[in-house]
């Protein structure tokens, strides 16, 4: 089974990946990687000594090198410097991870919901008992809270900034967001109820049980290296499933640190495994295995489609969180300030590298010029720089391929008549920094109207009527998030209902939360994550018909 390589990473000496693949990013080839700057180096030394900078995979509760000792280089996108060499794994390691996960499932799935809940809670908050002086040498044993994910938010945030590039403050915010899924599902574990159905015959009783699916393969992207993992692993473990996680090769360090904390919390050996390296090989092994009963994937639509097809021979359950093309619709009656702030947040979070990012800004005729001016003013205040630098609000893009994509989209729009109001080129900082950009007079024939930009570029599209706005907004294969800015309650209902999207923000630019369902329609995906709906994805429904009940 060939899934097609989508490797955009330097894999140095990896035995299996064809490194000369046209997909490999030239930026990340080892000869071009420079020594680390003092700042990043001291951060990484601190992380190493804290035991959180792990470079081996986790299989069956043991940290291991790849079997042939090959490694991948992980780079800091802000500087191009090498942060770490991590194990480059493939089929053999993945098969062993699946086997250990399968074994762990036999006992993890039979633990009570309360036991699983306590382990998950310890992953974020672990109680420890210590003797404490209470009065004149008199000691008492006291229960203290020792937070794992939360207490290590600084270190985890630093790891995210090191390997992904987002500003440290935003990275620490991601840790809190990521931890919120573990907290939520630790609670939800105890609320998985079945049903008793009124029977169709008086001597029968009809029951419905929810049981864990089994071993889950979780494949995650680089843009949220922690939260995209906890959003899957939280409900999976809470349900009684065990997991093999494959993080992005670009950002494996955060996943490994989170797994180290999971072990400290008491997640049993094999219940959580992490393998990384050769994506197509690992993907193939997960998909081919009959022991893996579910694949949950967050990433591009193109890869998601390949995985879905490859899941067919073993008829696995599939959840897909794929790309978006979110409209942010500003109506004439919107509060200008709210619309500017909301769209700014929706567009420029994570330098525009978010699946729910506003990809198209649809602005009604009457407010178009005023909005364009106020929005450009706000965008101009964004501070581009290294994520470790105080005050930075916009980090680098993930790699050269991302920059080239953004540049080509902007060139296409300009060649077809769009006008740049702000930015429109690489930032003078070099590397993969791009100027926050606003472009007006964008139309539906331009590539940026049709495809995910995944960068800090806001295209303004003019519309006349509410019907026009809905038609333009829905004219895409994607259907993840949409935003509306209006002061009319009736309009907000009408338009929310008419939009073919999985999430709608009304006068809000950041709407993701662990308590609400997250997921797309059309080619943005299948299934939901977060909330009680996210838990359902990890259950099989079993119907039990008990007959002969009237026998004395
Ligand atoms: N809907 C959501 O919730 C959501 C969230 C975050 C990101 N995304 C989307 O993810 C994309 C950006 O992330 P990306 O560039 O990491 O996506 P990607 O599809 O390139 O990679 C995602 C993951 O899939 C792996 N992968 C790639 N090819 C594979 C193969 N053949 N077999 C198995 N695994 C393979 C990668 O190594 C990575 O771990 C964007 O399109 C974004 O919209 C969606
Ligand atoms: O990139 C997608 C996930 C971001 C979010 O959960 O809001």
UniProtKB/TrEMBL annotation:
Transmembrane domains' residue ranges: none
Pfam families per the UniProt record, alphabetical: Aldedh (PF00171)
Keywords associated with the record: Oxidoreductase
EC number: 1.2.1.24
Catalytic site: 321
Designated name of the protein: Succinate-semialdehyde dehydrogenase, mitochondrial
Stated family: Belongs to the aldehyde dehydrogenase family.
Record-linked SUPFAM superfamilies: ALDH-like
Keyword Zinc (UniProt): no
Residue ranges constituting the Aldehyde dehydrogenase domain according to the UniProt record: 63-123, 147-544
CDD domains named among the record's database cross-references: ALDH_F5_SSADH_GabD (cd07103)
């Amino acid at each position: 089974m060939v899934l097609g390589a989508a490797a955009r990473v330097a894999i140095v000496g990896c035995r299996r990946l064809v490194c000369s693949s046209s997909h490999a990013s030239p930026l990340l080839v080892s000869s071009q990687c420079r020594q680390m700057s003092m700042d990043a180096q001291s951060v990484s030394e601190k992380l190493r000594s804290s035991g959180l900078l792990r470079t081996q995979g986790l299989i069956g509760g043991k940290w291991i090198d790849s079997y042939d000792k090959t490694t991948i280089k992980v780079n800091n996108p802000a500087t191009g410097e090498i942060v770490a060499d991590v194990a480059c794994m493939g089929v053999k390691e993945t098969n062993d991870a699946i086997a250990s996960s399968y074994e762990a499932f036999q006992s993890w799935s039979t633990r009570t919901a309360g036991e699983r809940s306590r382990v998950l809670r310890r992953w974020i908050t672990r109680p420890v008992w210590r003797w404490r002086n209470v009065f004149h040498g008199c000691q008492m044993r006291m229960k203290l809270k020792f937070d794992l994910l939360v207490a290590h938010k600084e270190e985890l945030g630093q790891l995210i900034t090191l390997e992904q590039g987002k500003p440290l403050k935003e990275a620490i915010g991601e840790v809190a967001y990521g931890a919120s899924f573990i907290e939520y599902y630790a609670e939800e574990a105890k609320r998985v109820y079945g049903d008793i159905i009124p029977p169709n015959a008086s001597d029968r009783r009809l029951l419905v049980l929810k049981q864990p699916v089994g071993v889950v393969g979780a494949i995650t992207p680089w843009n949220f290296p922690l939260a995209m993992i906890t959003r899957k692993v939280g409900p999976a473990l809470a349900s009684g499933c065990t997991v093999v996680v494959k993080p992005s090769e670009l950002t494996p360090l955060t996943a490994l640190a989170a797994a180290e904390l999971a072990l400290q919390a008491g997640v049993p050996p094999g219940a959580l495994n992490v393998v990384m390296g050769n994506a197509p090989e690992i993907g193939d092994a997960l998909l081919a295995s009959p022991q893996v009963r579910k694949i949950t994937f967050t990433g591009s639509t193109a890869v998601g489609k390949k995985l879905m097809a490859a899941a067919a021979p073993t008829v696995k359950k599939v959840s897909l969180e794929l790309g978006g093309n979110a409209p942010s619709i500003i109506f004439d009656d919107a509060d200008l300030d709210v619309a500017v702030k909301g769209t700014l947040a929706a567009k420029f979070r994570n330098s525009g590298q978010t699946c729910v990012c506003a990809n198209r800004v649809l602005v009604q005729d009457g407010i178009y010029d005023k909005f364009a001016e106020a929005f450009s003013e706000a965008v101009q205040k964004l501070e581009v720089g290294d994520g470790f630098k105080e005050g930075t609000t916009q980090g680098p893009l993930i790699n050269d391929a991302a920059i080239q994509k953004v540049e080509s989209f902007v060139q296409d729009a300009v060649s077809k008549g769009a006008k740049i109001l702000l930015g429109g080129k690489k930032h003078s900082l070099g590397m993969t920094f791009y100027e926050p950009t606003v472009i007006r007079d964008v139309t539906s024939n331009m590539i940026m109207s049709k495809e995910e930009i995944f960068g800090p570029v806001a295209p303004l599209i003019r519309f006349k009527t509410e019907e026009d706005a809905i038609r333009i907004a829905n004219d895409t294969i994607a259907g993840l998030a949409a935003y509306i800015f209006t002061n009319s309650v009736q309009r907000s209902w009408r338009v929310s209902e008419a939009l073919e999207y999985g999430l709608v923000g009304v006068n809000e630019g950041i709407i993701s939360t662990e308590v609400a369902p997250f997921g797309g329609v059309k080619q943005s995906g299948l299934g939901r994550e977060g909330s009680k709906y996210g838990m359902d994805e990890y259950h099989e429904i079993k119907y039990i018909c008990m007959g002969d009940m009237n026998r004395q």
